[in-house]
Amino acid sequence: MRKLLPVLLAIAGLVGGGGAGYLLRPPAAENMAAEKCGNPGTETTGHERVLPDDGAETDTEAVPAHEYVKLNNQFVVPIVENGEVAALVILSITLEVAAGATEQVYAREPKLRDVFLQVLFDHANSGGFGGAFTESNNMDMLRNALLEVARKSLGAAVVDVLIVDIVRQDS
User: How many domains does the chain have?
Assistant: First the structure.
């Protein structure tokens, strides 16, 4: 019986995971395309028909106002307590920028990483990653500080700083 129980649990886990994956799968691509093209009130596909004043049809392509630039590597911030590393906070950051500014972000990424790390270290040293560090006010203060230094480096091209992943690993 002791040898049978782990096998039964593994089979139950596989069946449960497979069933959940099947039920939670994204809709089929052709269904999404039909919804976007055929149903009024849904998002556009990026191509729209426009009728000018003279009644002739022309194609125009909708241009996105913003782009999202994921910074290549995660940020690792040590939390130091009593002179020793007590924890590590790991973050992934994405920048929302004006359309066409992606190359500018990648060209300045080393400088951005440097100023972001300084903000993150200051936040850690002031206790920002202690306790309920994901509290709304705490995260807003961190995002605002990151946005301020990003705009100093890249100017008004930076619209927002998005913290897309954050994990604290205690030692």
Answer: 2
